[in-house]
Specification:
Layout (H helix, E strand, L loop, with lengths): L1 E5 L5 E6 L5 H10 L8 E5 L1
Antiparallel strand pairs: 1-2, 2-3
């Protein structure tokens, strides 16, 4: 999910956060040994 905010100085702030996997997908990720939320939180100012 990405949220975009307009700042007072005219720049944009983009905050991206991984969502929680659904139970069925979470079981697949666990079986494969893959992190269900690899992205964490990222912030970009442009």
């Amino acid at each position: 999910m990405t949220a975009t905010f307009n700042q007072r100085d005219g720049r944009s702030l983009h905050v991206r956060k991984a969502t929680v996997a659904e139970p069925d997908l979470l079981a697949i990720y666990r079986a494969l040994g893959i992190n269900a939320a690899p992205g964490g939180t990222r912030k970009l100012i442009s």
